Amino acid sequence: MNSLGAKLVGIGVLVLVGFGLIYNTTYMISAGHAGVVFNKMDGGIQEETLDQGWHVVAPWKRVTEYPVSTELAYYIDGNHEDRKDVDDSIVIGTKDGKTIKVDAQVTYHMNQDSLPHIYNKFKGQDDSIIEYGYMKQNFQRIANNISSHYSMMDIVGEKKEEFNQELLKEVSSFFDQDGIIIEQASLGKVEPDSATKEAIQAVANAQYKQRQAEYEKIAAEAEAKKKVAVAEGDAQAKRIQADAEAYYNAQVASSLTPEMVQLKQVEKWDGKLPTYSGITNGMFSFK
């Protein structure tokens, strides 16, 4: 029994050692990520990166993952992802001397072939630190350079899309040199100062009043045209009626021959002969 027990203990130890080796020599790369392997023995990194999935990695090697599929970085004031009560919004200046706080967002991914360079440049820092450190700082710098050529009203108004297109072009060019591929970059909510808000509201009110006046003018013109059309219709109807009556009277007048006049008189006679009471001054006096 002692021999059997010793064997069982030995097997258990081997199993534990085996599980320990498996645990310490395997690594799972998350979906949409790739891994850079750092060798603690010689202080170097492998040029070949690890794709997503399971890999056997020696215990003296460390793996750092980076996103190679689309990631979204929010530069906003408020809670998002794992950042709580942090103001990540950016501040830019305009050519008319305004300083404004804006929300922004960037979608990006890292070129897998450039991951060794990224690891070396950022000394193995996590991608979230790169997002809200290096990337945010340079995004703000580039946005501020561009905004210096725009007024506040341009950025919050009709030139915002033009601004975003220029922003995407510039940040893409800058980050591409590090193997960080920018897919989309744009400003979101723009928070102007109180004076600018009042100016914007004044413009909006003026535009509303102008549109209202234009609508009222159009309505008045339409109503006037309607009245003119009704009046013209009434006048036309009266002319038609008058023409019809005139035509009728003309037809009647043309048909009144002496015989017709005499016939009309006969039709009106009640059948009684006139009576007389005597002769006055040589004339009969009829009753």
Summarize this, please?
The chain has 7 helices and 11 strands. It is an alpha+beta fold and 287 residues long.
Q: How would you characterize this protein structure?
A:
The protein is α+β, with helices and mostly antiparallel strands and 287 residues long. 51% of the residues lie in helices and 23% in strands. Strands 6, 7, 8 and 9 form a four-stranded antiparallel beta sheet that branches. Helix 3 packs across helix 5. The longest helix has 61 residues. It starts with a helix and ends with a strand.
List keywords for this structure.
287 residues; alpha+beta; four-stranded antiparallel beta sheet; three-stranded antiparallel beta sheet; 7 helices; 51% helix; elongated
Provide the succession of SSEs: HEEEEEEEEHHHHEHHEE
Uncertain regions spanning at least 5 consecutive residues: 17-22
Mean pLDDT: 79
What integer value in Å does the Rg equal? Answer: 50 Å
In percent terms, what proportion of residues is strand?
15-25%
Q: Judging from the principal axes of the Cα atoms, what is the shape?
A: elongated
| N-to-C CA distance | 171 Å
Find the count of extended strands (DSSP E, 2+ residues).
Answer: 11
What structural class do helix, strand and pairing data support?
Answer: alpha+beta
